[in-house]
Automatic annotation (TrEMBL):
<dbReference type="GO" id="GO:0015631">
    <property type="term" value="F:tubulin binding"/>
</dbReference>
<dbReference type="GO" id="GO:0000226">
    <property type="term" value="P:microtubule cytoskeleton organization"/>
</dbReference>
<feature type="region of interest" description="Disordered">
    <location>
        <begin position="358"/>
        <end position="387"/>
    </location>
</feature>
<keyword id="KW-0436">Ligase</keyword>
<dbReference type="GO" id="GO:0070740">
    <property type="term" value="F:tubulin-glutamic acid ligase activity"/>
</dbReference>
<dbReference type="InterPro" id="IPR004344">
    <property type="entry name" value="TTL/TTLL_fam"/>
</dbReference>
<dbReference type="GO" id="GO:0036064">
    <property type="term" value="C:ciliary basal body"/>
</dbReference>
<feature type="region of interest" description="Disordered">
    <location>
        <begin position="438"/>
        <end position="457"/>
    </location>
</feature>
<dbReference type="GO" id="GO:0005524">
    <property type="term" value="F:ATP binding"/>
</dbReference>
<keyword id="KW-0067">ATP-binding</keyword>
<protein>
    <submittedName>
        <fullName>Tubulin tyrosine ligase like 2</fullName>
    </submittedName>
</protein>
<keyword id="KW-0547">Nucleotide-binding</keyword>
<dbReference type="Pfam" id="PF03133">
    <property type="entry name" value="TTL"/>
</dbReference>
Length: 549
């Protein structure tokens, strides 16, 4: 009798061990997210069958209500940070960068073209426009973008002010008229950036990314040709030259970063220095919006669009909220699928998270609900740091996965009925800035039944990772910590984030001084000093390389 009870308990424990992680998708979430998570052995949240908190990752295209941030559980992650829209609206970004340039000088913040927000800055723009005509004899080229639109919609490039026409709030910027061209085609870079915390500020950039080409040759005499001046895939895929073979570029309109960097090395360009400059742009841009409201167990994936000019200077064009994860070509699939796999690794799920309970089976250690507070408020005693090791569910086998993936791909063809929308409260300042949230709950889908065994995934190897950052799987006792900080991205007891996870490389904090300055309220002034030192060192190294060549 005792033996049978022990066997029953063992079976119960085994079933707990095999419990998969659960993802929850808001409607219109990209199909590839479902595919990747199913490939990893996750199951999809079923609202009819499961408790409302019985999920590990909630992914949506719009901001979460603050109630979701307040009620977050230790085993859960949200894919948006509160108020991240501060740098993804074109007018907000321009204001923040202008403020930082005034506070810390134009030497660091010279990576963004001169910008005017219309109609408020119309008089200032006219003054700048007239001054250029008097000094140079001709006006510069300008680009006009609606602040609330994306994917190249509503963009106008002009030289004569008579051509400037707008019907909503727009941003007018100096147009970079000397872009780097490959075989005559303009290009820009889509750099993926993941922020796992804004306090302390923790920034990862992805090593691989997309190089996006215009599909017709650059020509300043034809400013209204969007296929020559805009690199947005959403526009160029409809161009006549999209599918044709273009000399030096090939078919389509995309390369990977790897191919682009190889191309630069062929011509003796220091691609490492270029990437360091791009990383500096990312750090300085994100510093411009700190502090944000502090929230636990969330992250933000940004798409930084960067243009390189013919002197190899990088320029920030804009920062994208919800960078596109649709698959327009094989290069998209190669880059974005691995990107999503590495994001899951970066979120550092542990075996205990699969239980989705405040109390571990067989243990009295309770994981407290995560508090939410604004930067600067006092916090409880900080949690001990955790290494980035974790156990996740094994990917289900191909026969099991295939029906689920077919369902995932088929679901994107369904057209949802119109739903009532309710206006959000922020951003509050401008009339065109209201972000709307769909109030309907996620669609119910058949829950994928799987019993995938958990296994230890190998750690990401990097020359930057020291022996102290070796990964490990936490014991149940590790659950007895206070979640007053975001522990999932921490690596050691000094709370230094892991240097590299998959293709994600830590770019901030980049040293101990930057780490300390980002704790307990970001000390921007001290961080700027450290960045100045870093930039000086990078420039010195670059000059030495140039002389040796």
């Amino acid at each position: 009798m005792v033996t049978s009870k022990m066997e029953m308990l063992a079976d119960d424990n085994a079933s707990e061990t095999l419990k998969p992680l659960v993802f929850r998708l808001h409607e219109n979430a990209p199909a590839i997210i479902r595919e990747v998570l199913l490939e990893r052995g996750w199951t999809e949240f079923d609202q009819k069958e499961q408790d409302d908190t019985d999920w590990n990752l909630y992914w949506r295209n719009s901001p979460f209500p603050m109630t979701d941030h307040h009620s977050i559980k230790p085993w859960q992650r949200l894919n948006h940070y509160p108020e991240a829209v501060r740098i993804t609206r074109k007018d907000y970004l321009a204001r923040h960068l202008k403020r930082m340039k005034g506070a810390y000088g134009s030497t660091l913040y010279e990576f963004s073209p001169v910008a005017f927000i219309m109609p408020n800055d119309y008089v200032k723009f006219i003054a700048e426009y007239s001054k250029e005509i008097q000094s140079v004899g001709r006006p510069s080229y300008w680009i006009c973008k609606p602040v609330h639109l994306s994917r190249g919609r509503g963009i106008l490039i002009f030289q004569d002010i008579k051509d400037l026409v707008y019907h909503c709030t727009v941003i007018v910027q100096k147009y970079i008229s000397n872009p780097l061209l490959i075989s005559g085609y303009k290009l820009d870079l889509r750099l993926y950036v993941c922020v796992t915390s804004f306090c302390p500020l923790t920034i990862y950039t992805y090593e691989e990314g997309l190089v996006r080409f215009a599909t017709e040759k650059f020509d300043l005499s034809s400013l209204d040709n969007v296929y020559a001046h805009l690199t947005n895939t959403s526009i160029n895929k409809y161009g006549a030259s999209y599918k044709t073979f273009k000399e030096g570029i090939g078919c389509g309109c995309k390369w990977t970063f790897s191919k682009f960097r190889s191309y630069l090395r062929i011509f003796g360009v220091d691609d490492m220095l270029l990437w360091q400059k791009m990383n500096n742009i990312v750090i300085l841009t994100l510093l411009a919006v700190t502090p944000l409201p502090e929230a636990s167990n969330c992250f933000e994936l940004f798409g930084f669009d960067i243009l390189i000019d013919d002197k190899f200077k990088p320029w920030l064009l804009e920062v994208n909220y919800n960078p596109a994860l649709c698959l327009d070509c094989s290069i998209d699939d190669t880059v974005k699928r691995k990107l999503l796999h590495d994001i899951v690794e970066l979120l550092n799920y542990k075996q205990v998270d699969a239980h989705r309970q405040n109390e571990m089976p067989g243990s009295k250690a309770v994981r407290r609900q995560v508090p939410w507070r604004r930067t600067g408020q006092s916090t409880p005693e900080q949690a001990p740091g955790l290494l980035s090791g974790r156990k996740v569910s094994t990917c289900i086998s191909a026969p099991q996965t295939q029906p689920a993936l077919q369902f995932a791909r088929g679901s994107i063809h369904k057209v949802s009925s119109p739903t009532r929308k309710t206006a959000r409260a922020h951003p509050r300042e401008t009339l065109t800035s209201q972000l709307r949230e769909k109030m309907n709950k996620p669609k119910t889908s058949s829950q994928v039944k799987t019993e995938a065994k958990n296994k230890q995934l190998p750690a990401a190897h990097s020359p930057f990772i020291s022996a102290q950052l070796s990964r490990w799987s936490p014991s149940p006792e590790i659950c007895n910590y206070k979640l007053s900080t975001r522990p999932y991205f921490l690596s050691d007891k000094d709370q230094m984030p892991t240097r590299q996870v998959g293709g994600f490389v830590l770019i901030f904090p980049f040293n101990e001084a930057a780490l300390q300055a980002s704790k307990d309220g970001t000390d921007v002034k001290s961080i700027i000093k450290e960045i100045n030192k870093l930039v000086s060192k990078q420039n010195s190294t670059g000059q030495k390389k140039t002389k040796s060549v």
